[in-house]
Amino acid sequence: MYFLTILFEAFMSFCACMAFSIVFDAPKKELVFCGISGGISWFLYVVLTLNLSPTMATLISTAVVAAFARFASYHRQAPSTLYHIPGIMPLVPGTVVYNTMATALSGEVLETYSNILLGLKLAGAIGAGSILILALPYSFFEIIPRRDKKAKVKS
Predict the structure, then answer these.
(1) Could you give the CA distance from residue 77 to residue 81 in angstroms, rounded to a whole number?
(2) Using one digit for the tens of pLDDT, what is the confidence trace for 85-104?
(3) Cβ contacts of residue 11 below 8 Å, gap of 6+?
(4) Distance from C-alpha of 153 to C-alpha of 94, rounded to nearest angstrom
(5) CA distances (Å), 148 to each of 57, 76, 104, 137, 138, in order?
(6) Domain annotation covers residue 98
(7) Residue 56's domain spans which residues?
(8) Has residue 74 been placed in a domain?
(9) pTM for the full model?
């Protein structure tokens, strides 16, 4: 039953990232891939948090999404940020920032510092996971040869 919940959350993340891409005017033919990127990130994050800390789960999920973005970029002939940005949106620590503000306003100093530290760790994990993959050369993602479009013959 818990697995169905995870799949449902991943599907909702897919839909949310696709909607995010629509709002930011991504090409229509790339919307599904933007959604897949978000679905992968949330699915991996939830599965990995069963055994790992949220920071490590975020790092690994971000690295996988960045690799997917680079792979899709190579094969779809589009910028990798088109797939990367929607993919990391579910991992952004919005709840942690909200909790930080709520505890700060209620005067809970230690809990506020704890939330600030967690937010910084999660944001750092997103940055590090992205850099680890984006620093790889573009040719690294030529693992599977690209299908070239047939040249149109003008007569």
Answers:
(1) 12
(2) 999 999 999 999 999 999 99
(3) 39
(4) 52
(5) 36, 10, 55, 21, 17
(6) no
(7) 2-90+126-141
(8) yes
(9) 0.87
Q: Retrieve residue 5's tokens.
A: 């919940």
Convert the pLDDT of each residue in 11-50 to its tens digit. 999 999 999 999 999 999 999 999 999 999 999 999 999 9
* Secondary structure element (H or E) that encloses residue 6, with its range: helix 2-23
Q: Kindly state whether residue 148 falls inside one of the protein's structural domains.
A: no
- Residues 67-90 have pLDDT tens digits of 999 999 988 889 999 999 999 999
d(CA 154, CA 128): 48
Residue 117 domain-assigned?
A: no
86, 35 Cβ separation under 8 angstroms: yes
String of DSSP letters for 54-78 = HHHHHHHHHHHHHHHHHHHHHHHTS
- Count how many domains the chain has: 1
